[in-house]
Amino acid sequence: MQIGAHTSIAKSAGPYDGVANAVHLQSEIGGTCGQIFTHSPQVWQDPDLGDEEAGTFREVTGEADIGPWVIHASYLVNLCTPKDDLREKSVASMQAEVDAADALGIEFVNVHLGAHTGAGVEGGLDNAASALDDLDVPDGVTVLVESDAGSGTKLGDEFEHLAAVREKTDLDIQFCLDTAHMFAAGYDLSSPEAVDETVAEFDEVVGLEDLRCIHLNDSVHACGTNKDEHAHLGEGEIGEDGVRAVLNHEGWRDVPFVLETPNEPSEGKGFAYDIQTAREWRE
């Protein structure tokens, strides 16, 4: 099983000068794959990666035999927006991320569709496809569109949205599913039977062959609430039975799992705790 967590690239997080610290932290928690932000996800900022820093990341991640890695795009990116200025910023930010992925030797850049903010579902999906079409994605890098919890005018909470964007764009996109997001969006994962149904629906609508990453999170809130708040594995509304079923389902058990659970190592429940829990529950 490939499992890891979203780890920090901060200079204070390890012995390296930047992004390679994510590899150091991943090794410390026992992760075998992982995810990073290249900068603060709350601001418009391009990745600041020099050749030496990128080379160190490639070298260290190769030595540690950790991968695949995923870059998570900025939270400010909104591919569905009808606003020209926000669209321009979103496309520029995504271009910088796929270029950073190329420099780092990272396979995937993960992004949410965003909110249509009045353009309507079809208009928002058209906008997202058009924004993706404007990207010049390097060979060896793939954009992953992530499922969303929904709320307001956000898109991506329905599997049909993911399939529609793939149909509308010329870019060869693939997908990331977040268990907490799916659950919040109304796809039940709380029992083996429910997981069977949800996996079958995703396979029918989108196709398991295009699933490249799963964000493995329990959910603080109930199914269908559209509330996105993550819990430690087995300690939320998905629960132990559901998480066990997710980890062991034949349809996606070979897909890398990346944790975005609370990281509270001082309380004994950091990423290492959830990684160990997942490994114990894997059959």
Summarize the structure.
The protein has 9 helices and 12 strands.
Record keyword descriptors for this entry.
283 residues; alpha/beta; eight-stranded parallel β-barrel; two-stranded antiparallel ribbon; 12 strands; globular
Topology of this protein?
Blueprint: E1 3-6, H1 21-29, E2 34-36, H2 51-64, E3 69-72, H3 84-104, E4 108-112, E5 114-115, H4 121-133, E6 142-146, E7 154-155, H5 159-168, E8 174-178, H6 179-184, H7 192-205, E9 211-216, E10 218-219, E11 230-231, H8 239-248, E12 257-259, H9 271-281
Parallel strand pairs: 1-2, 1-12, 2-3, 3-4, 4-6, 6-8, 8-9, 9-12
Antiparallel strand pairs: 5-7, 10-11
Helix pairs in contact: 1-2, 4-5, 7-8
Can you walk through the features of this model?
The structure is a single chain. This protein has 283 residues and is an alpha/beta fold. Helices cover 38% and strands 15% of the residues. It has 9 helices and 12 strands. It has helices spanning 21-29, 51-64, 84-104, 121-133, 159-168, 179-184, 192-205, 239-248, 271-281, and strands at 3-6, 34-36, 69-72, 108-112, 114-115, 142-146, 154-155, 174-178, 211-216, 218-219, 230-231, 257-259. Strands 1-2-3-4-6-8-9-12 form an 8-stranded parallel beta barrel. Helix 1 runs parallel beside helix 2 (51-64), helix 4 crosses helix 5 and helix 7 (192-205) crosses helix 8. The longest helix is centred in the N-terminal third of the chain and has 21 residues, at 84-104.
Poorly predicted spans: none
Provide the β-strand percentage band: 15-25%
| Helix vs. strand class | alpha/beta
Radius of gyration: 18 Å
Instruction: Please give the number of β-strands.
Output: 12
Biggest β-sheet: strands ordered side by side in the sheet: 1-2-3-4-6-8-9-12
Any idea what the shape is?
globular
Mean pLDDT score, rounded? 97
Percent helix range: 25-40%
Q: Can you summarize the main beta sheet? A: 8 strands, parallel, barrel
**Count of helical segments?**
9
Quaternary structure annotation: single chain
Order of helices and strands: EHEHEHEEHEEHEHHEEEHEH
- CA distance, first residue to last residue: 10 Å
